[in-house]
Specification:
Blueprint (H helix, E strand, L loop, with lengths): L7 E3 L2 H12 L6 H8 L7 H10 L4 H11 L20 H20 L6 H4 L2 E4 L1 H7 L10 E4 L12 H6 L8 H12 L25 H9 L2 H15 L13 E2 L2 E2 L4 E2 L5 E2 L2 H11 L1 H17 L8 H10 L7 H10 L1 H4 E3 L2
Antiparallel strand pairs: 1-8, 2-3, 4-5, 6-7
Helix pairs in contact: 1-2, 3-15, 9-11, 10-11, 13-14, 13-15
């Protein structure tokens, strides 16, 4: 170990091998990592080892554990859309939805694609059943294959059936839940907590068949609810073209859907396509920062603190270029001060 710097010490190479292995593989270091560490060569060859580990089959653990946590894909085992409202939904379809999102994560990771493709990807990975569910052309052959979305309104992880189903109620969509998911999981923004004694959303039958949007507008008329919903609802309404199990639609209960909105910062949009383009163009730094914080939290096994803010800022600045890919972001995490050093005992 070297001298103390800002109350921290450089970790030894065997500890580094363990940190790398549990971060990328959720397992103990293999013989190659241990040999390099024992020779004192791991730190100088870290970049090549990180790439090797990402392309090793054991990196599936990063998909299952980190992506499962970040995108909340683990919760797909618990989703239960109402069987009367959605008779075609079952556990195998839910598993297919989760697998689609995992395959996109693995592709962006292993091909070192820019992380903003999580928002903008004009392709996905489908099998025949999921393609039929989405109403797009089925891939050739059995199993999952990459499919172009050039002729589809779908783009990125947000329009995956997994995310759309996770952020819905059993019988209907939830603009509030979808807006909250976008803010928290992708943009790293915590909405204010709901006030106590919030009245429930008026039921459609009790309100002469009012649309979901109209009922939420009534709900928002309550001053206690207005500020929170002004942040959450617009983003959620942009996704109303996707029903509670992720199928495309243009009407709800015979009414034309209204997917327009205005963010609290003033930007207006017509639908998810326009909102997505705005997020990619204007909020990509927020997305990279949020993903960086979640990766750092996962890699260290602790929450990011005030002392880590400079590290996060440096990593975001380093990965803002369109040429920087997902592997570059992970390598920056592995080279960061919190990952390479430990607090002095």
């Amino acid at each position: 170990m070297d001298e103390v710097q800002n109350g921290t010490l450089l970790i030894d190479e065997l500890t580094l091998a363990s940190r790398l292995s549990y971060f990328l593989w959720s397992s103990t270091p293999d013989e190659e990592l241990l040999t390099l560490a024992e020779r004192g060569q791991l730190r100088s060859r870290q970049a090549e080892q990180v790439k090797r580990m990402i392309h090793d089959s054991k990196s599936v653990a990063l998909t299952e554990n980190f992506a499962g946590q970040w995108l909340q894909l683990r919760d797909m085992e618990q989703v239960a859309p109402d069987p009367q409202a959605f008779p075609g939904f079952d556990a195998p379809l839910a598993a297919d939805m989760r697998r689609e999102s995992e395959l996109l994560f693995e592709h962006i990771l292993r091909e070192n694609r820019p992380v903003v493709e999580f928002l903008s990807a004009d392709y996905t990975f489908l099998n025949a059943r999921l393609a039929e569910h989405y109403g797009v052309s089925a891939p050739l052959g059995e199993g999952f294959s990459r499919v172009s979305l050039a002729d589809s309104p779908r783009r990125g992880i947000v329009t995956h059936g997994s995310v759309l189903t996770l952020t819905s109620h059993p019988t209907r969509t939830s603009p509030v839940k979808r807006g909250k998911w976008l803010l928290e999981q992708l943009l790293g923004t915590q909405p204010p907590p709901a006030p106590r004694d919030v009245p429930p959303l008026p039921d459609a039958q009790e309100n002469e068949g009012l649309s979901l949007r109209a009922r939420l507008e009534q709900h928002r008329a309550n001053a206690a609810c207005a500020s929170c919903h002004a942040l959450l609802d617009p983003m959620g309404f942009a996704l109303e073209n996707y029903d509670a199990v992720g199928r495309w639609r243009t009407t709800e209960a015979g009414r034309q859907l209204d997917t327009t909105g205005q963010l609290i910062s003033g930007e207006r949009f017509q639908d998810w396509s326009e909102l997505r383009q705005f997020l990619v163009r204007q909020k990509s730094d927020h997305f990279i920062k949020s993903l960086t914080e979640q990766l750092l939290t996962y890699s260290l096994g602790r929450e990011v603190t005030y002392h880590d803010k400079l590290t996060v800022r440096e990593i975001v600045n380093r990965n803002k270029s369109p040429d920087q890919g997902f592997q570059d972001l992970i390598l920056a995490i592995c080279e960061s001060v919190p990952f390479q050093r430990m607090r002095q005992p």
